[in-house]
Amino acid sequence: MTVTRFSIKKPVVLMYPPLEQAFDEYEDLEKSYNAVVLKIDAKNRQELIHDLKNKYKDYTINIVATSGPLYHHYGKFDREIIDLLPDLKAVCHNGAGYDPVDIDYLVQKNIPLSNVVGINDASTADTNLFLILATMRNYFLGNKNIKANKWRSGLPIGNNPKDKTLGILGMGGIGKDVNRRCKVLGFEKIIYYRRNQLPSEEEEGAEFVSLDQLLAQSDIISINLPLNASTHHFLDREQFEKMKDGVILVNTARGAVVNEVSLMEYLKNGKVKSYGSDVWENEPWHINEELIKMENVVATPHMGTWAKEVIYDYEAFQVKNIKHFIQHGKVLTIVPEQQQNF
């Protein structure tokens, strides 16, 4: 079946690696939509730039399929790369967070950016729940003890959710799923902060509070904010000082939402009892080794979406965005910064 195309007569898609699961979907993109899919095989940014100037110079690349891991090998999808793609019409990102992409320059160039919305919420919330329990009960230290034949020798006694307040910082899709999972654990209260209060039916029992109230009242703070210019180092010394003594922090958002250097100071003096994080400011190659090796830090290597089902759904939805743009000239899920423009 050949699909009628309204936006692009001859689609050429430049695809960032890796492709893990949705092989059939990309094959259908080539067959049914008559698309050319160019799979990047450069080893680093310098090779990618060379290939764009030489290997791909005769292709009219009009769609780029970006991925979360692109930053690890190729740096940011930014002005330098975008300017080498004069026929670019759309960028379809494989992931919910799109900080590896220069959204400001795409806005300036009037090029739409899509992301994958909602698919990662449950899986990331599962990781969030795991980190909450692991930090409260010191399970990682217990695991370390038993493997060293120490049983519970020197193992700090943990805490249950009873009589505790959980604060959710950022109540989007993931924050809502964290709330649903944690309601059954027996927290005394669950509170949340975001720019605007949710409708009561979406709060599901959580209480809307100000940022200062959340910092002052929470025994455990779940960090679920997107990373952008306004949330970079959102939690720094000023915010740590407003928190309860012995607060527990859990982060499945982005590492740079927290100032990790300041955090270490408060982990050392006990103001922050423990930190459970799946995300790191300079992951994966330059994470703060001193931080992740601290006894009161539970560290995982960005596993919130590291599940076959999520990876497949991410990739398949990315293809849906590409197909929709080819047919209709617009993506299915435009990012918030561009919702008024497209």
Automatic annotation (TrEMBL):
UniProt family annotation: Belongs to the D-isomer specific 2-hydroxyacid dehydrogenase family.
Record-linked PANTHER family: 2-HYDROXYACID DEHYDROGENASE-RELATED, GLYOXYLATE REDUCTASE 1
Entry GO MF terms: glyoxylate reductase (NADPH) activity; hydroxypyruvate reductase [NAD(P)H] activity; NAD binding
A Pfam family: 2-Hacid_dh
InterPro entries hit by this protein: D-isomer_2-hydroxyacid_DH (IPR050223), D-isomer_2_OHA_DH_cat_dom (IPR006139), D-isomer_DH_CS (IPR029753), D-isomer_DH_NAD-bd (IPR006140), NAD(P)-bd_dom_sf (IPR036291)
Cellular compartments per GO CC: cytosol
Residue spans crossing the bilayer: none
Domain of life (superkingdom): Eukaryota
Entry keywords, A to Z: Oxidoreductase
Signal sequence extent: none
All residue ranges annotated as the D-isomer specific 2-hydroxyacid dehydrogenase NAD-binding domain in the record: 130-304
Domain D-isomer specific 2-hydroxyacid dehydrogenase catalytic span(s) in chain numbering: 44-334
Protein name: Glyoxylate reductase
